[in-house]
């Protein structure tokens, strides 16, 4: 797909499958740089130019937008990366730079699902004792500390990198990166005798949710934080089309 060059450089706040897909579509067609948070030691690199690390808050990001003559920002970060999304919205507003949010759709419970929706990880931890004792935790390594006080539970925590800081007493860490299959998730849940799954509503592949449904395992689903008020699309194709309109 040919995407005309918008006014100035495009800053793509990445770290997701959708961000990599968009970068692959537009690299070579527009002057785009993908920014990665740097929280993993071996991130999946998108096509085109990349930068690693934070900007230094709203002021630092605004300065970057001005210094680099950025003409558009696409926020394709993880749905739970509320801090950078908020900073991007504030910096773009201060600099008058168009902002697009690219977010994959969240998950929706279907027939046979037993979901318990909560607003936060602490709320999820408070719910666990009455739902199960063997917990499959897929909230990312930074969220594991919220479950450290639950000595009556055993946790299987899957993450790309090892957790740091306080962790539950009974914890097994599985270092792995998706995508995962329904058959693989079903085998994992069965082998570890998991009786409750805790996850964030990040959207994307739902293999673990299908496996939980098939095995009758309840799910504690942490809702997404509210997104900033900006134009929002759910696919890389739609984001590329938005970039095209900037020349009209």
From TrEMBL:
Gene3D superfamilies: 3.40.50.2300. Pathway: Cofactor biosynthesis; adenosylcobalamin biosynthesis. It holds the Pfam family CbiJ. Keywords: Cobalamin biosynthesis, Oxidoreductase. One of its GO terms (biological process) is cobalamin biosynthetic process. It comes from the Bacteria. GO terms for molecular function: precorrin-6A reductase activity. The keyword Oxidoreductase applies. This is Precorrin-6A/cobalt-precorrin-6A reductase. The lineage of its organism: Bacteria, Bacillati, Actinomycetota, Actinomycetes, Micromonosporales.
């Amino acid at each position: 797909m040919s995407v005309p060059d918008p006014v100035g450089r495009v800053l793509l706040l990445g770290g997701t499958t959708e961000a990599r897909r968009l970068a692959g579509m537009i690299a070579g067609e527009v002057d785009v740089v993908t920014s990665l948070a740097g929280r993993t030691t071996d991130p999946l690199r998108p096509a085109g130019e990349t930068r690693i690390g934070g900007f230094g808050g709203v002021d630092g990001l605004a300065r970057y937008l001005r210094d680099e003559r950025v003409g558009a920002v696409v926020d394709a970060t993880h749905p739970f990366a509320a801090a950078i999304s908020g900073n991007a919205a504030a910096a773009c507003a201060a600099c008058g730079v168009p902002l697009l949010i690219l977010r994959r759709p969240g998950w929706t419970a279907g027939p046979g699902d037993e979901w318990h929706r909560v607003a936060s990880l602490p709320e999820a931890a408070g719910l666990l004792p009455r739902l199960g004792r063997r917990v499959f935790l897929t909230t990312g390594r930074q969220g594991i500390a919220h479950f450290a006080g639950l000595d009556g539970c055993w946790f299987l925590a899957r993450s790309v990198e090892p957790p740091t800081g306080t962790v539950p007493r009974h914890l097994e860490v599985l270092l792995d990166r998706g995508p995962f299959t329904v058959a693989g998730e079903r085998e994992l849940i069965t082998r570890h005798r998991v009786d409750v799954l805790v996850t964030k509503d990040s959207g994307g592949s739902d293999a673990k949710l299908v496996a939980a449904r098939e095995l009758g395992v309840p799910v504690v689903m942490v809702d997404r934080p509210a997104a900033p008020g900006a134009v929002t699309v759910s696919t890389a194709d739609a984001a590329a089309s938005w970039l095209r309109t900037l020349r009209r």
